[in-house]
Specification:
alpha+beta, rod-shaped, 5-stranded mixed beta sheet
């Protein structure tokens, strides 16, 4: 397992703050001719605690509760320094960084509150505490620090929770598209072949049955591949143009419908996501042709433009009348459109009864607009 890479605010900023504040302590103590040996000892102690409790102990960091112990020790030493030298309140950002970055929710609130008490103590250092008003002021300063940072922590937690929920939703949509692109397409093709075998003559029936068996095996391989979140099988060992040519050829052989693949423009590198999306779009469009179009000829064209890649699938089938602002074709077309638009591309379906259908996809080469 690779070692986790910690952000700079946890690995560099605390040491930088401590170094600056140590230098400030030396200058101030020298100017007022007061001894500062104890202050330097505390600075060395908190530096050693950070070094050996966090930086040099990667295995210990992963133990349950270890970072809580580390932050508790850090807060105690920092509080001790603040009681001696209030300018060490400028070290509290490091405490907040540790609390936000190391403690799980809701323990994070306890760590933030502890750091907030130290920060408030530093800020209210000069407030006289010989009256109830002074103590009330001191408590108010601490409360403002604690409540403000706890609110920030809660908002950050809400943001993270929302991101996780959106991630789950996106993953569900991705899985739904993958299931459709593998199982649903495969089952549709199998049903089509079996229906054709049911009405076929004796000499043609074996052809349809063999095609159904081959499609079932291919769909099973694709389903297993999708579970492992790999690239579509045709793209694992071939360029996009070759993969589209193979898909077109196999589809033509399986359905006994002439289909031709054409490549135009100068092939250019495409991102994996763009290649997968274009391949899936071609597979979905061809599946719809086999299911609905009653076509006798199909053309698949991949075009490389200046900054985009375009895919066109045209058939001479029965066609239909597209409805405005609708996703005719069910989930397949919806999923296809979502894939394309997620990359900053456009998908259009042009059709007319008796004049066939054209599915056109255009996406930026890198996958974003």
């Amino acid at each position: 397992m690779s070692e986790r890479v910690w952000p700079v605010r946890l690995t560099v900023v605390p040491y930088a703050l401590l170094a600056v504040l140590t230098a400030v302590t030396v200058l101030i103590r020298q100017s007022d001719a007061r001894p500062f040996g104890a202050d330097l000892a505390l600075c060395a102690a908190i530096g050693a605690w950070m070094l050996f409790g966090f930086t040099l102990r990667p295995a210990w960091r992963e133990r349950p509760g270890a970072m809580g112990v580390f932050l508790a020790g850090f807060v105690v030493l920092m509080g001790w320094l603040v009681l001696r030298d209030p300018w060490f309140g400028f070290l509290t950002p490091a405490g907040y960084f540790y609390a936000f970055g190391l403690l799980p929710w809701p323990w994070r609130l306890a760590g933030i509150s502890a750091v907030g008490v130290v920060a408030g103590t530093a800020q209210a250092y000069g407030v006289p505490k010989d009256s109830w008003y002074g103590w009330l002021t001191y408590a108010a300063v601490i409360a403002v620090n604690v409540l403000a940072m706890c609110l920030a922590a809660w908002l950050d937690w809400q943001r993270a929770t929302l991101q996780r929920q959106l991630g789950v939703s996106d993953e569900r949509e991705r899985l739904a598209r993958e299931i459709h692109d593998t199982l649903a397409q495969g089952l549709t093709g199998i049903i089509t072949q079996l229906q054709a075998a049911e009405h076929a003559t004796d000499d043609r029936r074996p052809h349809h049955l063999n095609a159904a068996i081959g499609l079932a095996r291919e769909s099973l391989r694709e389903a297993r591949r999708s579970v492992n979140a790999l690239r579509p099988e045709p793209l694992q060992s071939a360029a996009l143009s070759d993969a589209l040519a193979n898909v077109t050829h196999h589809w033509s052989t399986r359905h006994s419908i002439p289909a031709a693949f054409t490549l135009t423009g100068t092939p250019a590198p495409l991102s994996e996501e763009v290649e997968s999306t274009l391949l899936r779009a071609a597979q979905e469009a061809l599946a719809n042709v086999a299911k609905h179009a009653r076509a006798t000829r199909v053309g698949v064209t991949l075009s490389f433009l200046d900054a985009h890649a375009a895919l066109d699938i045209h058939d001479n089938g029965t066609g239909f009348t597209p409805k405005p602002d609708s996703d005719d074709g069910g989930f397949g077309l919806i999923a296809m459109r979502q894939r394309v638009e997620a990359l900053g591309g456009l998908l259009s379906v042009e059709s007319e009864p008796g004049r066939g259908t054209t599915v056109a996809v255009i996406v930026p080469r890198g996958g974003t607009s």
